[in-house]
Amino acid sequence: AEGVVCGHDLFVASAMEPPDNILKVKTHRRGKDILIDHNYLEIASPTTSTKFGHYYDISKTMSPELLQSIKWHSFYLPEELSLEPKLKMCNMNCGYANLLHSIQRVIYQEGFDGSHPQKKQKNILRIGIQSLGSLLWGDDICSSDTPEDIHSLTKFLYVLRGLLRKSLSACIITVPSHLIQNKAIMERVTNLSDMVVGLESFIGSERETNPLYKDYHGLLHVHQIPRLNSLICDVSDTKDLAFRLKRKQFTIEVREAVLFHYFEPKRWNTWENRPTPTSLELEDFLVFHFHSSLIFFFLITLAVGARQLLETREEHLSSRLLILTQAERLCMGRRFFTAFHIFNELPCKGYGLSLFSAKASTQRGICSH
Amino acid sequence: MTEVSSTRSVKARCGSFLVGTERGVQREGFQVAGRSSTAGSMSAAASPQGKFTLLRDTGTDGSFLVHHFLSFYLRAGCKVCFVALLQSFSHYNIVAQKLGVSLTAARERGQLVFLEGLKSCLDLLFGEEEPSGEPSPLQFISGSTSNLKALFDFVRTSLTPADSASWKGPVLLVDDLSVLLSLGAAPVAVLDFIHYCRVVVCSQLQGNIVVLVHGSEDAEDEENDLVGNSLGHHSDLILWVEGLATGFCKDVHGEIKIIKRLSLESTEQDLVQVYQYKIQERNVTFFARGLSAAVL
């Protein structure tokens, strides 16, 4: 949603369902249509692009006009495999090889890697890959302790990292880590990613009835923060994060009761009316809802080198954190969705990516990094 | 060996760490505070050659050591071959500029040979055939060979001195050997590669090697542990960086254990020192355990 609002190009890849369903639209089904998920909406009045992040209302769908204003590309594995079933790349899984070729083609053709200098308008490509590593991608790391090819996923991530580093793109990947038995793979995957975030839901676990957690639906674990272009990284002081889903909003909050009084998102009609930070310097939240007792790792690889290509500081296109555009459908029985208050906290000088969109003012939040 | 001189030799081996008075002395971007030793810093040229340094990090990011060694050796005038597998050139360049060294200038004057793993991998997979006919250093990714010979050949040709070269001892720096394991190299192949590099760089050319092996706290990756432990047995100096056992702290980012092998033949105990550190924007401060500036 954030990509649509900011006018960036999208690339949505899925093996589970047609990317059309991820961004559902009533009219077009194929081709370059944008699909928005029916749970996934946008509020009527997005604020100006200089501020980071927008609010989204999960109970409505995105207007088709907004969707048509951007260009998006889709990758639906069953279709792609039927076209090129034999594509091989360095002993990698066929599905991954196809996906890499597809991403590389889009990056090259649309000029995100600077290969078409005559293009006047530079844009960012936001890539979303759903459920990487699951059985649907043809990888058996989720289904067996001793997978046949344990290097496919890590090779894929390495090549993807290379593609992102040399182009103006950012990628968010969801991985069903609860299904992966081999911990060594998860360690390698974490090492190859820039930012790793995990969501843990209380549903189905003993924490659901724990009075400590009664206001929340799950915990948010930040496993790794990127340390790019700098010796230090921007580590938040607050590590105890939880999320909850309300009817229209999904929020991530610092898990302390006293802080709630300062933040009641529904009172924020516009960005200007938001409560000012207290002396504790509380930050904004990102709200997630997570309804299954599974831990998902979101691996996000960022394109840092691309930053030098952009001239406008306001764009901050080098790396953006896309927080999960959709949760793990495959694990969720019911229709579940989330709206994301997506962060566009971008490192200007590469101090790393902050999960929290800190003080909204561009001076502090974005440029200070 | 008296205590003072053994400390001195440790500092000499460490080379890069500066030991000063309680106030600490700032130099080369790193400083050690709170130490009362009298030993001074040693430049890279005066420090012993032919040494193998292993950097290990578990549970935290030890790449600040790589940045440090890179800028240290470049400033000392050594010829450096940097195999950077995890990050792009611009990342290292920007950090090195904060530490006072320009990688672009070093590369242009031939002092630095930089292998950007990410770019090389992309060229291998998506690029056209090499016009010069040389195999890509990361050829093992494509599966055609299972050993790292191409990478070793790259290292050898870049560090073997040419006629007009006037640099001091060659140095091989590898950022993250664990990435090679992720890319499909067998642990034995990685160890063979390091062995060949040691023969050429340490023994024949009297240069130094610095290698980073990244691990995690849970130590579930057996192959990674195998490589790390095996290299540890062969190293002259091990710098082991770990996060604090008690969790995250704003003022102390982690602990570093310096293990110095006094002699590979004799049965003397290794010298072990533990410091804690805090990373700042252009600097890393080391201090004795419990003596963080925030506490004092």
From TrEMBL, chain A:
Keywords: Cytoplasm, Nucleus, tRNA processing. Pathway: tRNA modification; 5-methoxycarbonylmethyl-2-thiouridine-tRNA biosynthesis. It is found in: Cytoplasm; Nucleus. InterPro entries: Elongator_complex_protein_4, P-loop_NTPase. GO terms for cellular component: cytoplasm; elongator holoenzyme complex; transcription elongation factor complex. One of its GO terms (biological process) is tRNA wobble uridine modification. The keyword Ribosomal protein does not apply. It holds the Pfam family PAXNEB. Its main location: cytoplasm. Belongs to the ELP4 family. Component of the elongator complex which is required for multiple tRNA modifications, including mcm5U (5-methoxycarbonylmethyl uridine), mcm5s2U (5-methoxycarbonylmethyl-2-thiouridine), and ncm5U (5-carbamoylmethyl uridine). The elongator complex catalyzes the formation of carboxymethyluridine in the wobble base at position 34 in tRNAs. This is Elongator complex protein 4. It comes from Anser cygnoides. The lineage of its organism: Eukaryota, Metazoa, Chordata, Craniata, Vertebrata.
From TrEMBL, chain B:
Pfam families: ELP6 (PF09807). Its main location: cytoplasm. Gene3D superfamilies: P-loop containing nucleotide triphosphate hydrolases (3.40.50.300). One of its GO terms (biological process) is tRNA wobble uridine modification. Pathway: tRNA modification; 5-methoxycarbonylmethyl-2-thiouridine-tRNA biosynthesis. One of its GO terms (cellular component) is elongator holoenzyme complex. Keywords: Cytoplasm, Nucleus, tRNA processing. It is found in: Cytoplasm; Nucleus. Transmembrane segments: none annotated. It comes from the Eukaryota. Belongs to the ELP6 family. This is Elongator complex protein 6. It comes from Anser cygnoides. The lineage of its organism: Eukaryota, Metazoa, Chordata, Craniata, Vertebrata.
